[in-house]
TrEMBL record:
GO terms for cellular component: cytoplasm; microtubule. It comes from the Eukaryota. Residues 46-143 form the Tubulin/FtsZ 2-layer sandwich domain. It is found in: Cytoplasm. This is Tubulin/FtsZ 2-layer sandwich domain-containing protein. The lineage of its organism: Eukaryota, Metazoa, Chordata, Craniata, Vertebrata. GO terms for biological process: microtubule-based process. It holds the Pfam family Tubulin_C. It catalyses: GTP + H2O = GDP + phosphate + H(+). InterPro entries: Alpha_tubulin, Tub_FtsZ_C, Tubulin, Tubulin/FtsZ-like_C, Tubulin/FtsZ_2-layer-sand-dom, Tubulin/FtsZ_GTPase_sf. Belongs to the tubulin family. GO terms for molecular function: GTP binding; hydrolase activity; structural constituent of cytoskeleton. Keywords: Cytoplasm, GTP-binding, Hydrolase, Microtubule, Nucleotide-binding.
């Protein structure tokens, strides 16, 4: 699920595009969909099948809306100069400014969460980042 206003704000704020057109919005949405469905196109030891999302993330059939977040969204110029850690990327995924829908999850609770990483990511770093989030209790999950 995506919200044009949220995508517009991400293009404006993160990519320094003064007046994003639908072309820019569609490119960002395309990048997000491509990342989510990458496991269908590429082999990997830790790939997840997107059909598992509904099974594992949606406990009740009538509650079926997923909130997508994509991080980092940075311009090509900044990408060459900015090296982000797994912890920074993981934390960015829970920031409302990086969500594809305008809402503030700090006013509610997460039912489930699935983080998809691609590239040269070490599971140890991912586990450490998640442990830090759990320890700080920056996000809340349902009991």
């Amino acid at each position: 699920m995506v919200d044009n206003e949220a995508i517009y704000d991400i293009c404006h704020r993160n990519l320094d595009i003064e007046h994003p057109t639908y072309t820019y919005l569609n490119r960002l949405i395309g990048q997000i969909v491509s990342s989510i469905t990458a496991s269908l196109r590429f082999d990997g030891d830790l790939n997840v099948d997107p059909t598992e999302f509904q099974t594992n993330l949606v406990p009740y059939p009538h509650i079926h809306f997923l909130l997508a977040t994509y991080a980092p969204v940075i311009s090509a110029e900044k990408a060459y100069h900015k090296q982000l850690s797994v912890a920074e990327i993981t934390n960015a995924c829970f920031e409302p400014a990086n969500q594809m829908v305008k809402c503030d999850p700090h006013h509610g609770k997460y039912m489930a969460c699935c983080l998809l990483y691609h590239g040269d990511v070490v599971p140890k770093d991912v586990n450490a980042a998640i442990a830090t989030i759990k320890t700080k209790r920056t996000i809340q999950f349902m009991d």
